[in-house]
Amino acid sequence: RNRSISPGAGTDALARLWDAADGFPRAVVAPFSMASRCREQREARQPRISEKACAPESAGNGSLADPLAEMVALWRAELKDPTLGPDDNYFDRGGDSVSAVRLLAVMRKRFGRTPPMSRLLSAPTPRNLVAALGFGDQAAETPATASSVEEPPPWVVPLARPETETSAPIFCFHAIDGGVVFYRDLAERLAVEGRAVYAVESPLFHDSGETIPETLEAAARRYLDAIRMVSPEGPRVFCGYSFGALVACEAGRIAREEGETVESVIMLDMFNPASVRIVGNVERLRRHWESSAPAPFAKRVGSLAWRVLRLAGWMFRHAAVHVGERYLWRDELRQKRALARRGYENLIRHHVPGKQESRTLLVVTETAWDKFEYPDDLRGWRGRLRGEVVLRHVGGTHLDVFKQPHLDVLVKCTREFLNREIDSTSPLPPANRSVKAEAVVRA
Length: 443
Fold this sequence. Notes:
By secondary structure, the protein is an alpha/beta fold. It contains 14 helices and ten strands. The chain has helices spanning 7-20, 34-41, 51-54, 67-79, 97-111, 117-122, 126-132, 184-191, 216-230, 243-257, 281-291, 297-328, 332-349, 406-418; strands at 156-160, 170-173, 197-200, 236-241, 262-268, 277-278, 360-365, 372-373, 388-394, 441-442. α9 packs across α10 (243-257) and α11 packs antiparallel against α12 (297-328). Mean pLDDT is 76; it is low at 42-63, 138-149 and 428-443.
């Protein structure tokens, strides 16, 4: 199997690894001339913003001389687009989630503070971000709104809005690191169906005094209160990936118990934490060895050695992240993401999901994580999802769900589910190596 990646993807991965090692001595070892290879890939790689460009220049009174012009300059350097203007959309000009995180870190160095990621999603222009940073009245003029209307909190972010809303809005809950940027491509492709799509980001990114609720149910209730400011009556669709799937399930249960209309719940690749068993590394290796029994002995040994190396790599990576979070990383965004991950992991460990009566789409990856032992074909959800459950598989692993070609499959099955083109009597689509479908089941 061809496991290679494109030169551009490799260059971008090298840049992210280089940034992650900030504070450590760094060196690149390669069997070829790095200088010539970098020249070949220079046009394919997004440029790095120099430290000189990050050094604040004051106008003599403690403030930046022209924050809007400097913001535009940062965006032009990051996106390699000299024609970008103060009202141009970051994502329309080629920005993505990786460069967005990098850009916010650079803005922190340049301006001494940074807006939350949700502001870049909801108003992705230099002018609006300068206003979000508090540098004068730089925001584009907008029509006045009634002051009597209570505004939703800033962590409820509009991702995509159709010209005419004809169906229930979709609310997507953040992942375990608190982020929501990865939903953007999915949201834009679902909005053409006449649905507005919103994301619920972690409040930790918006208020330094925020704390993580004591239970996942408490978090879901708080998010639901904020959602009611956008959609007071319903119906609504709740969607979540990973940790967000647990929040979506809980929000759907609470809304339904309180008499509100829940059209459906979409759960993307998450198990029931109350019913799975964690498998230790030694047992994982034993199972891997036993599963390779039909193969020749030499091949089994090689496969086991490769599995050991992969496990060691993951353990080293997690140890490096832990050290970085505690002692090395000083960037505010990274620190908040680390705080979110630790806090929400603790909520998962103590969460027992309630019984969900709404119609549910459960999407799981073709390759299940062998760290857990699942009691049933629904990743532990049988008996908890009490309404109609549509189960679908997408290819790849947990981290591949929003990458192509799996994103296309995810969009397709989500559209069919929302439009009720698949139900308990739907025939199964043909399976192939990368994508396979499971029967619609009733839990």
